[in-house]
Design brief:
253 residues; two-stranded antiparallel sheet; 24% helix; 6 helices; alpha/beta; Rossmann fold
């Protein structure tokens, strides 16, 4: 813990704002008026018991760490090494300050999900929460995480819109058979040309079936679904076929 008083912390919180993560920094809330409530703590409480309570000896990569809420939760569970990455320097400044106030030894770096290969390191646990729908190339991101970043467990979350059902579909369809595409539960990735919820970085929003299909296609096995939008996934052998993973060998008919 730092020797800062509440008044000093509050002044620094105001200087570093606005905050998206509502953190408790020695009694000072960073985003008490958050439109989602006590976020992300309110979401964390709905799935936190699905993750190991003891992470001693484990390494964690938090992709799109924002102000570091999940990075700090991993440290609270004893993770030996935690690296948080984000492409927004404002968020990283918040994260570094929050970790300092809480006395956590966490490294934060300005990198995007597309840079994970440059780390030349795999992590036991990768947290990929609330990032997918902000990406112009979401499936590429999952492919890169599977190939370069995760060793044991992926903690994935994405905003979802459309059908919450996950229907069963055939592995292949005739070229002239388009009926499956009209079913609400068919995997769909909704493209946002301009903005959603006032945010111009919201690009692609999957329905449930699409989120699950994208995970499988990138080479992840869904081992748990503890919260509506949250999945725990193990890396497995990726599916065969043209374009299934990055980089993919070309398959000709």
């Amino acid at each position: 813990m730092t020797g800062l008083s509440q008044e000093q912390i509050r002044a620094q919180v105001e200087e570093l704002g606005p905050w998206f993560h509502n953190l408790d920094l020695n009694g000072v809330a960073t985003a008490p008026e958050h439109f989602l409530g006590d976020y992300p703590a309110v979401k964390w409480r709905r799935f936190s018991t699905a993750l190991p309570q003891d992470l001693h000896g484990k390494s964690v990569l938090d992709i799109g760490c924002n102000a570091g809420f999940y990075s700090m939760e991993m440290k609270r569970r004893g993770a030996t090494r935690v690296l948080g990455i984000d492409s927004d320097e404002d968020y990283l400044r918040q994260a570094r300050f929050a970790a300092k106030v809480n006395g956590f030894d966490i490294e934060f770096r300005n990198l995007s999900v597309y840079d994970v290969g440059a780390l030349s390191e795999k992590f036991d646990i990768v947290i990929f929460m609330g990032v997918l729908y902000h990406l112009r190339h979401p499936l590429l991101a999952l492919d890169l995480i599977r190939e370069h970043a995760v060793r044991e467990l992926l903690v994935f979350q994405s905003m979802q819109r459309g059908s919450a059902d996950a229907g069963a579909f055939a592995d292949d369809y005739d070229f002239w058979d388009g009926d499956a595409f009209d079913r609400p539960e068919f995997p769909k990735l909704h493209f946002i040309e301009h903005r959603y919820a006032g945010d111009p970085t919201n690009w692609w929003v999957p329905n449930r079936a699409c989120a699950e299909a994208m995970l499988r296609s990138a080479g992840f096995e869904i081992s748990a679904h503890p919260e509506d939008e949250v999945y725990l996934c193990k890396p497995v052998e990726p599916p065969a076929g043209f374009g299934a993973v990055y980089p993919a060998g070309r398959v000709r008919a």
